[in-house]
Structure formats: C-alpha cells, structure tokens
Amino acid sequence: MANVLSEPALPNCASRSEEVLLEKTAVPMSQLALEAKAAAEANPHDPELWIKYGRALRRQMMHREAIAAYCMGLSYNPFYPLLYRHRAHAYINIGEYTASAATFEVALRLDPSNWDCWYHQGVAYYLSGQYERAEVSFRGCFGRSDLFDDDVATKDWLWLTLMRLGKEKEAAEVVADIKPGHAVQYADCGYYNRVLVYNGTITPEEAMEAAGKGDGHLYATASYGIACYYLFHGEKAKAYDILKKIDEDSSWGGFAEHAGRRDFAQWQD
C-alpha cells in the first residue's frame, strides 16, 4: 500500500472501509433539490443559493450531501457565516459533534451575534460530553434572540447541562421564570413541556402523555428531557424505558435522538 503520509505509517492502521465513506445514498434528489442545485451552479457566488440547496437536501435526510453543498458554497464565499452555520448543523445530524462545534466556532468568529450558532454549538458540545463548554455556549445565547421559543430551548438544554455538571441550584434558577400560558411556535414540540417539568409546574407524567401523541421524532424531542429528569431524580427504570424507546425508533437525525441513543448506549444499571 502506498504511503500517503509524510512519515512512515505505523503497523496498526485503520482500514479504508473504516475511514472512507464508501456507500452513497441511492435516494434520488427531489425536484426541489435538483432545481436548487441548478440555481446554485448557475450563480455560484450567491451563498444563499447554496444554503437553499443544502436545506433541500436535508429535507430528504441527505445531510452528507448537504455538507458537500455548503462546502462548495464556501469555496466561493469563504467568509459567509451562515454557510458555516448550516454546515455545522448538518454535522450534528450525522453525529460529527466535534466537527460541528469547530465549524460553529468559525461562524461565531465571523458573526458573534447569531443566536443559532451559540445554541447549536452548545448542543454539539453537550452531545460530545463537553458540558463545561456547552454551558458557555448556551449562556452565550442570552440576549441574542427576542423569541420566547428560543429562550425556552436554550434554558432546556442549559438545565440539562448544569444538572450534569452537578449545579442543581443554578439549573433551578435558569428555568424558574418559564411559566405556562405563552404562545409558542416550535417549543410546543416538547421543549416547553420539558421546562415546565423541570421547574415543577407540570408533572413528568403530564408531559409524557403529550409526548405519546407525536411521531418518533416528536416523541424523542418531547421525552428525552423527561428521561433525564427521571434519571436525575433517581427513577432509573422510567428513564431507561424512555431511552430504550428512543433508541428503537427509526427516527435518527434530531438532537434528542442523538442524545437519547448516546445515553442509552452509556447506560449503567
């Protein structure tokens, strides 16, 4: 085997099948993605067209292909922060958490005001078990969005992070001001109820009743935080059952699916 390194290879080396993505998806691109691809290729210096193309691919769960689209956009627009933001998000979807966090770091150097970048970088650090860094990222979200839903989502993941760091008092303070009765746009997918459980407004059983009405992705989103709540409060059997259900479902790309499967794989009885 030809040595592709500048230094001699060591005796124990990873194989090509382990290191190179050999299998490509057989899923054909949607008409939406094909049209977006054509538009981006016709006007390659427009970064928003590459973002549109990548987003169309991600709607088909073609996250690796979306990353390639964002990379192509960056080859024309290397200082456009939103291309990094979307590429980093797609890295989370395929489980490349460190690559995601590093890519968000570039985006934040270019635009430190972007709430999405702070928030999703926090998720990437949380999923990679770097809870101290996750806390910094989630705290960086505050004051960067006026949307109530964004505040709920931030406080949800920050509560989970602080609890894992053993900072129970700080965790309680973070979620204390979230009350019922707010109009929400996306937090109703589960984050809102999760936070209301964390601060004692509703019971975990009430939240799980609502979670059971959604599909696999919505169930995971609504129930992952409840599984953690049970775990933090010593109800390991209930936590295990939720994580097991998340692990067995076919839904795979969302943050809660990644977190649930990670925790299930690391389960200590």
State the low-pLDDT regions, or none. Answer: none
Rg: 20 Å
Query: Biggest sheet, in brief?
Result: none
SS class:
mainly alpha
Question: What's this entry about, in short?
Answer:
The protein is mainly alpha-helical. The chain contains 15 helices and no strands.
List keywords for this structure.
269 residues, mainly alpha, 15 helices, 64% helix
Sequence-ordered SSE layout with sheet pairings:
Elements lengths: L15 H4 L11 H12 L4 H12 L4 H14 L4 H13 L3 H14 L4 H13 L3 H9 L8 H17 L3 H8 L15 H8 L5 H8 L4 H17 L3 H13 L6 H11 L4
Helix pairs in contact: 2-3, 3-4, 3-5, 4-5, 5-6, 5-7, 6-7, 7-8, 7-9, 8-9, 9-10, 9-11, 11-13, 12-13, 13-14, 13-15, 14-15
Summarize the structure in words.
It is a single chain. Helix content is 64%, strand content 0%. By secondary structure, it is mainly α. Helix 4 (63-76) runs antiparallel to helix 5. The longest helix is centred in the middle third of the chain and has 17 residues, at 148-164. The protein starts with 15 loop residues before the first helix and ends with a helix. The mean pLDDT is 93.
